[in-house]
User: Fold these one by one.
Assistant:
Number 1:
Amino acid sequence: MKAPIHSEESFATLDGTGIRYAVFLQGCPFKCAYCHNPDTQPLAGGTPTEAGDLVKKILRYKTYFKGGGGVTFSGGEPLLHPEFILECERALAGYGIGCALDTSGAVRLSSTVRAAVDASEMVILDIKMPDEARYEKYICGSIKNPSALLDYCVQTGKRLWLRTVIVPGINDTKEGIDEYVKFVGARMKGVEKYELLAFHTLGFSKYEKLGWENPLKDTPALAQEKLAQLQAYLDARIESK
């Protein structure tokens, strides 16, 4: 099984627990206004790679995965390629290497997608907006598939982290955080960690290189102090539920 790989990072530390080998797959159905890797969006592109060849490369780094490390499939949207991921997961499991999925939940929860989720040790799910209207406005998609994946992970007891990018002028208020808490609702009981990420401008040059309009070109990066305040507020809201 082949899939297009955009890039790889052999010593990733922000994509799950421990030291991880991160695989960024090409293609994403969503077109987020704040996407910092717009070059991963087109399905055409990337380097076609056999699952077996990727597994062989990953095995060179096995000694670094001690203490909870492993492999993280990200993107783009990794679950556009569930058969490829499942083949890799099953092969890596034979060597005692666990895999995580860093996903936006953009794709339909097909039987193959469920199988890839089942074979993962954890899911990192990006909750982009708290309602359908803002998914349509800022993400160019629907909240239905992410919500279905959230339900599935909670129902099956999958180890689950949530993430949300905080963008100045869009969702950077305590009232905005309240809306995310309301959306997740009772499903929060199945969430191990909910992490807020700061919008940044490091990917702006990629829009210029692609010749694409950057819808947030005049938006400043979120200050780390503001991010810390909102994270503390979110943590307190979760603890009080």
Note: The chain has eight helices and eight strands.
Number 2:
Amino acid sequence: MKEQQPHAYTITRYTPDKQAEWDSFVERSRNGTFLHRRNYMDYHADRFADHSLMFYREAELIAILPAHIKEERFCSHNGLTYGGLLLPQRTTTAEVLELFNLMQEYLRCNTAATSIIYKPTPHIYHSYPCEEDLYALFRNNATLVERKISSAIALKNPLPISGRRKLTENTKSHLHIVEDGDFATFWSILEERLQSKYDVAPVHSIDEITLLKNRFPENIKLFCVADNNGNTLGGVVLFITDNVVHMQYSATTEEGRRISALDYLYENIINSRFTDRDYFDFGISVEDGGHYLNTGLIAYKERLGGRAVVYDTYIIDLNTTAND
């Protein structure tokens, strides 16, 4: 395979023997999370033709890109909520512009890809400002093709919860929160709710989420609301990074919905449980790439204090030339 080496830069395709180097880089990057570690990415390796890239300046690794190829599209990465170039502290804007140019030349020389689908990591997941890639997208005539809107709470200064609350103090006295409870019980509640309301299944099967939980026990947690008889009324699965607590799944039973058990749980998570993090991210409230807004869903998140953060997707046409 031809590798690009102008100006002492090299682009190399990831291979499993580089896992330790890859994971170490994720840990020290400005915008990587546990989702970018190979033990997370590779749980569904059978679904994606991995073509992740590693960028070197001489012998120093200065960027990585989780990616795969689907037909004639180089994607970063459809198996992940967000991705794009992961960068350490030292990599500069000028270098990122150079890396974008080299990446396009690499793809033209070594693949059949005719376009790049690029999903940058939203700023709330950055440990230090890291939007050089957004500027590089602009310079390379990238087109915004999806804008999904999520709702996030600043946990160190949350907005007050608004609207009529259904939970009385008497109701709360009959409830308790269980951390890392029974995933199988919660998954049956989740599957029933998603099927009945949206006619869909969870992205992860119970076997997959159990596998990932075992691999990342401090990053993936289940919080359930149970009554005094031990009956699970609902819960949330959280993906926890250094900066952000992301709500991956939530569901309640009919009784849980009747008494607004999730309100009780969210109040605890937002105001007490994760005050050491910066944001609570409820996840997206849109369909059709952002063209349809679920107004009822986002209104609920906004009532709890969530405000907009966008998850964008861009496309670069490899048949055109970037503006210098």
Note: The two ends are 28 Å apart (CA to CA).
Number 3:
Amino acid sequence: MSDTTQSYQNIAPSGAAKFRQRILPFAVFIAIILLIPLTDPSRTMYALMHQMAIYIVFAVAYNMLLGKGGMLSFGHAVYFGLGGYLCMHAMNWIADGTGIWGSFPTFFLPIIGFVGGGLAAIVIGSFSTKRSGTTFAMISLGVAELIFAGAFMFDSLFGGEQGINGDRMNGPEVFGLSMGPQSDIYWFMAFWTILAVIAMYAFTRTPLGRLSEATRDNPQRVEFIGYNPQRVRWLVFSLSGAFAGLAGGMSAVNYEIFTPEALSLIPSGFVLIMAYVGGITYFVGPIMGAILLTYMSSMMSDFTEAWLLYLGLMFVLIVMYAPRGIAGIIFGIWDGIRGPNAGEMMRKWAVQLAGGLLMLIGLIVLVEVAVRWSNGWGEAFEPFGLHFTHGSIVTWIVIIVPLVAGGYLLRLAGREKEEMPA
């Protein structure tokens, strides 16, 4: 055996590393999904988990485009929406019982969404992927606006402002699911989420998945070795659109209605934030981002009017100071704990955590007091029985002192990081 072969074997991941990185996360993910119904969730929790499942598939599909292919799209909700609209039409065809649709199970409607999103992506990607970088992003934005505007013009296809609704409790049952109760929809969501996530992970291990990363990093070299970078981008774009359409099909079955809002820039921007906050360099990153942001949008709005402001601040801070996202933070901590300087790293993280929490306390008090003062309600911010008003000196002490102290601790931790030996 040559020295070169031995060196390649030395840098290859061990069997334990492969299990830890590739098999264990999926096993834990599937186990959590299967165990959730045993906790007897409420209807609210079922609805929240269904929304999470939709956004998990949508976010991972989007990251096929952004994280793996290096293509920033501002209009990926187009394929989510078109797939969902096609599923709504198919749902009504099933209800009519005409032709082959009379025997088509509603359970398999996401396949229709996959086909619809994929066909749309094939057509649009045939010209949009001829450009990359900023030009591609602008084309995606223009296409999104074009189709969103068209949704209000072609009522027979999109239903106008009212959208299209349907009834999912038609067609033959699959696995004994009537598709009526929330518990039946949970298993529907679980099946398609697991299947889609595993399929998209498998794509990353294929030659095309590897080529998409190479095209992202160095398209000239890809062309030099005999591959067409534009064709690689087109294929990846088409598959990403297809899985986005599958997520749209899941949404159609869950909500039984689809409106032009699903084609707008709002869901496109939301899924972009999910991917970035979770971490586009990790496969599990968009999953984490989808779970966190879905929870924030559904639950935080019950506690504060300013949840969108917190979301925007979190996105800015992640992009500026943690570009690898939440997944990068978690895996970085894990690697640091297992490293030779674990004690020093943990002390530095403790200082950073204390600084971050102090700044967060000051920021929350500032925002909540400002919101109440701006709205003119005359209400005080009263967390844990405390009383903060904009005219109280105590309020400003609670705002300024944590912000200054937290900023000092973060700066101190940053200086220590620069002085640490490599």
Note: The CA atoms of residues 83 and 116 lie 5 Å apart.
